[in-house]
Amino acid sequence: MSTTDSSSTPGTDAKDTEPKDTESTDTTPEVTSDSTSQTPKTEDAAVTPADKVTPADKVTPADKVTTVDEPAKADEPAAVDEPAKADEPAKADGPGTTETVTETAAATTASTVTETKAATATATKTAPAKKKSSFSFNAGSLRQNGIYFAFAAIVLLFAVLTGGDLLQPQNLSNIIVQKSYILILAIGMILIIIAGHIDLSVGSVLAATGAFSAVLMVNHDVHWAIAIPLTLIMGGLIGAWQGYWVAYFGIPAFIVTLAGMLVFRAVTLVILGNQGIGPFPDTVRNMANGFTPGWFGNIALGPLGGADVITLLVGVALVASIVWTQWRARAARQKLGQSLEPFGLFLAKIIAPSIVLMFVIVQLARFKNLPWVLVLLGVLVVVYTLVTNRAVFGRHIYAIGGNINAATLSGVKVKQVTFWLFVNMGVLAAVAGIIFSGRLNLAGPTAGNSFELDAIAAAFIGGAAVQGGVGKVIGAITGGLIMAVIDNGMSLLGAGSEQVMLVKGLVLLAAVAFDVVTKRRAGASSR
């Protein structure tokens, strides 16, 4: 390589070129050696493709090329396949060589990095995704829908054992009316259990609020439109009392509500003076035992006889809502790319509930139309289903029950949510107290005995998890109906009370054991 004459370089001073020539002369051998070992000649570099600039023994592995933003060490010359520092241009032999080498190095580096990123992206896309085992899907589906299959099996069993008497119109109406207060309690209880708590006092609260409403409406002739809101306020205050000790004072709900079960039973005895109070006004009794009037008359159903038009229209509307909500939920999951159940199972989830619902509706329409308490229960189910599935408060309930520490760190106001859950439970217990007292037409000191156990059993049979975080309102209603069918079916068979308690206890144990087993197997299959 020849040394460039400084005098031939345009725009260069004679005073400045002389020291530069001396410095260039001293360092030329070292630079020439490095340049020769790492780069080809300038003329070759201009025509050589970028992938041939770096010799084979200097090729950087792909896993190291990606770290292009790591600066080169100061005491080591920059490699050709690494970008040169902005403040340290590569030394060259002649004019234009520095720019050519830098451009060549940058092109080589960019090409290698691009190829590496493309290969990584291709590998990521083509990597087989971890398939969800069919067992885990079936276990999750069985856990969610198993309660409905169990309910259908129990109904069919008792229908066969009773010779069809279980499914007669009058008997179906009696099941709903007689167990409506348990279903109302189960709605509030499922929320408490989802949040990881328990309430043992709902039976005593039901008795106390029923006694309070009886004193107002019977002894003091307070109009029912005023007495009922005052009773609901009393239930809310009882719930706030218990919620304070649980949420803000930190006493476990089991202890607080166990104390409340004793305290409010004593309050009931004090209010009633250890005697029953009745009768209730006709409006309250009609709300607990009455039926909707036949505004549009009856329609002939052939051999089934006449049926109330309003009741049938309500049934058709409910079936349409089932189809619409299920289809909308499936479309939303498909749009988000989530896993879908087989289409046959999807159709079964629509057709089976629709058939069962229309059968019940037709039977009720053939008897005495819709019970008013069923209308109230339907409104409560819709409202609380929307709260748990759509409202922020409902999401917070599940978050607290799933992981209270994570919920706290996420900004959920755990104490407030817990407090209002117990307030809500007190209000629903008051509603159930009014319904129960109105149905018996008497507020007695023994009202509500063991009702808390039935409500808790309904929640757990309906799919609530013992640890919290899992459960649905419709599941609690289904669990309560299972208990009601067992009670009614065994009564039709003439079974004794001890046999009824035995069967109900075994059903509760089987439901909780089923929940535990499905959790374990689903967890094992996902590992």
TrEMBL record:
<feature type="compositionally biased region" description="Polar residues">
    <location>
        <begin position="25"/>
        <end position="40"/>
    </location>
</feature>
<feature type="compositionally biased region" description="Low complexity">
    <location>
        <begin position="1"/>
        <end position="12"/>
    </location>
</feature>
<keyword id="KW-0472">Membrane</keyword>
<feature type="transmembrane region" description="Helical">
    <location>
        <begin position="295"/>
        <end position="324"/>
    </location>
</feature>
<keyword id="KW-0997">Cell inner membrane</keyword>
<keyword id="KW-0762">Sugar transport</keyword>
<feature type="transmembrane region" description="Helical">
    <location>
        <begin position="370"/>
        <end position="387"/>
    </location>
</feature>
<comment type="function">
    <text>Part of the binding-protein-dependent transport system for D-xylose. Probably responsible for the translocation of the substrate across the membrane.</text>
</comment>
<keyword id="KW-1003">Cell membrane</keyword>
<feature type="region of interest" description="Disordered">
    <location>
        <begin position="1"/>
        <end position="109"/>
    </location>
</feature>
<feature type="transmembrane region" description="Helical">
    <location>
        <begin position="253"/>
        <end position="275"/>
    </location>
</feature>
<feature type="transmembrane region" description="Helical">
    <location>
        <begin position="180"/>
        <end position="202"/>
    </location>
</feature>
<feature type="transmembrane region" description="Helical">
    <location>
        <begin position="222"/>
        <end position="241"/>
    </location>
</feature>
<keyword id="KW-0813">Transport</keyword>
<protein>
    <recommendedName>
        <fullName>Xylose transport system permease protein XylH</fullName>
    </recommendedName>
</protein>
<dbReference type="InterPro" id="IPR001851">
    <property type="entry name" value="ABC_transp_permease"/>
</dbReference>
<feature type="transmembrane region" description="Helical">
    <location>
        <begin position="146"/>
        <end position="168"/>
    </location>
</feature>
<dbReference type="Pfam" id="PF02653">
    <property type="entry name" value="BPD_transp_2"/>
</dbReference>
<keyword id="KW-0812">Transmembrane</keyword>
<keyword id="KW-1133">Transmembrane helix</keyword>
<feature type="compositionally biased region" description="Basic and acidic residues">
    <location>
        <begin position="66"/>
        <end position="91"/>
    </location>
</feature>
<feature type="compositionally biased region" description="Basic and acidic residues">
    <location>
        <begin position="13"/>
        <end position="23"/>
    </location>
</feature>
<feature type="compositionally biased region" description="Low complexity">
    <location>
        <begin position="97"/>
        <end position="109"/>
    </location>
</feature>
<feature type="transmembrane region" description="Helical">
    <location>
        <begin position="345"/>
        <end position="364"/>
    </location>
</feature>
<feature type="transmembrane region" description="Helical">
    <location>
        <begin position="417"/>
        <end position="436"/>
    </location>
</feature>
